[in-house]
UniProtKB/TrEMBL annotation:
InterPro entries: SAM-dependent_MTases_sf
Single annotated GO MF: methyltransferase activity
GO biological process: methylation
Protein name: Methyltransferase domain-containing protein
Signal sequence annotation: none
High-level lineage: Bacteria, Bacillati, Actinomycetota, Actinomycetes, Kitasatosporales
Record keyword Methyltransferase present: yes
Length: 280
């Protein structure tokens, strides 16, 4: 769920919506991967596309030393609040380093006392792997042989309750796609996972396959407004907003979410995510 940002006036709040509403939906995936790879004290973990840092925080809480890389400065700022708060704030500072990726260049964004480079990671994660393909190839080439790399993404659409809701983006983008070409017009829309897409990405990145798994990650929201805000925060509706307008996308989303609205006002969608473990 990598964001393609739309209107500057919405960016800070949207990043907050991701961090406070949507990101937690993937906690079962993060925990399943960490449990399988025995992430804990002594683990050096590198998270590609770390966003606002929840996955890093969970690894750090297990005792890992974590480094996060992302291109989104606003989300990295939220990750810093979680992992590297100012001493005056009284919160715990974890053993973490955050790096902003800009035009293929890594720029230190964390505490100035942290070194710009360190030992090779023991584990690499790309929880939105298809959006991190270029970074994966560069990273894989620098890893020590045998280092596990986790690639994750959506499961098959028939196992994702959110599929119909996510397809709203493609439907609203169709007129724009017809004018610009389907491939370009759909670039910001949700693409259902194919059976071998993660495996193919691993091969293209020069990695050897060494296992896989599936994890249930239901999307649950306190109310309809939270569901709409959470889904918009993913960035998967950006082309739809450009092709129509934000309010129309919100209305269409709310309509598509109606089948998932419960009597108590909560919204619930079962989903399945896949991950592949590959090695350098």
């Amino acid at each position: 769920m990598t964001p393609t940002l739309v209107q500057d006036t919405h960016l800070p709040q949207r990043a907050r919506d991701w961090a406070e509403i949507q990101e937690r939906m993937l906690v079962p995936l993060y925990e399943a991967v960490y449990e399988r790879l025995d992430v804990g004290a002594g683990t050096r973990l590198l998270g590609l596309g770390c966003g606002s840092g929840l996955a890093l925080l969970l690894a750090a809480a297990r005792g890992a030393t974590v480094t996060g890389v992302d291109s989104d400065a606003i989300r990295l700022g939220l990750a810093r609040e979680r992992l590297l708060p100012q001493p005056a704030e009284g919160a715990r500072r974890w053993n973490a380093r955050l790096v902003r990726r800009a035009d293929g260049v890594h720029e230190p964004e964390a505490d100035a006392a942290l070194p710009p480079a360190g030992p090779h990671p023991d584990v690499v994660t790309a929880f939105d792997a298809l959006a991190q393909s270029a970074e994966l190839a560069r990273t894989a080439a620098s890893l020590e042989r045998g280092t596990p790399v986790v690639l994750a993404g959506w499961g098959p659409p028939e196992r994702c309750g959110a599929a119909a809701v996510l397809h709203v983006a493609a439907r609203l983008t169709e007129p724009r796609a017809a004018r610009r070409g389907a491939a370009e017009g759909a670039a910001g829309c949700w693409q259902p996972g194919s059976r071998d897409d993660l495996e193919e990405l691993a091969h293209r990145s020069g990695l050897r396959l060494d296992g896989s798994g599936r994890v249930a990650c239901p999307f649950g929201y306190a109310d309809m407004d939270s569901a709409v805000r959470g889904l918009l925060s993913t960035g998967l509706y950006d082309d739809a907003v450009r092709a129509t307008d934000r309010e129309q996308v919100r209305r269409e989303l709310a309509g598509a979410l109606q089948p998932h609205l419960r009597d108590d006002g909560t919204v619930w969608m079962p989903n399945l995510f896949r991950y592949v473990i590959a090695r350098a």
